[in-house]
Amino acid sequence: MLSTLALSRTAFVRTSLRAAQGTSNSGLSLALVRAYAKASKNKNNKKEKEEPPVRPEKVGPKGSHATSTANLIPSSKRAFQDDLTQAEYDNASTKMGLSVEWSRKEAAALTARGVGLVTPSILDSVRVSLPDADKDSRIQELGTIGMREGNNLIITLFEDHYVKHVEKAVYAAKIPNVVPQKVDARTIKVVIPKPTMEARTQLAVGAAKIAEEARIQIRKTRDAVVRKYKWKPRTDEVELEQFQKLVDNRIKEVDQVLAKAKQELAK
């Protein structure tokens, strides 16, 4: 394009010179032509400097927009190609994971007691039934639990009438070798004895019960999905197989938690 403009400018100048030579005012015409040519050249040079280079646009497929693939899950890592079934699978996996975490927390509390570590979490399983309440309460909702002399838990309640109900709940929880003792109108002392070998054996039995409860909850989560979609062995083999693998993996995690707890309690 620039070459064409240059040629046109040159042709114009030559034509103007010839015309100027054939007139009586050739000196004046020649000066005017030269001035015009110089001004035209400066203008074109300035325009070339100001115009930025044109970059080719990056265009995707026709009718599409650029899409980030950062959050896409590779098909090789998905259990199902169908989004709805995959969503159910992910949801079930999350629920099963919560059952595993529950077993891990409970087993850790038992292990702590087995090695002589006393913490308020020992009373986490206690549920208190109050006459005027719609549901049972945790002790932490009715008062505070503190430590004293290494192996004593002190329960300080917010109301006097909570005392007898909390005592009854601690007994009902059947925590091995744990006996509540009323100190005053709002205070209960719970002495945690040093664990004996027999006590550790009982704690190991408790850990096994916790693990079995977690396994039951994991299977229930799988069964709920199967019932929802009415999957049958002959027609929905892929779905049933994938969910069974998920169950097996989560139960394996529970078994590992139990094995670790038993190992700690056997020391």
UniProtKB/TrEMBL annotation:
GO terms for cellular component: mitochondrion. GO terms for biological process: translation. Keywords: Protein biosynthesis. Residues 45-60 have a biased composition (Basic and acidic residues). Pfam families: RRF. Residues 39-70 are annotated as: Disordered. Residues 116-265 form the Ribosome recycling factor domain. The keyword Protein biosynthesis applies. GO terms for molecular function: ribosomal large subunit binding. It comes from the Eukaryota. Gene3D superfamilies: 3.30.1360.40, Ribosome-recycling factor. Necessary for protein synthesis in mitochondria. Functions as a ribosome recycling factor in mitochondria. Belongs to the RRF family. This is Ribosome recycling factor domain-containing protein. It comes from Sphaerobolus stellatus (strain SS14). The lineage of its organism: Eukaryota, Fungi, Dikarya, Basidiomycota, Agaricomycotina.
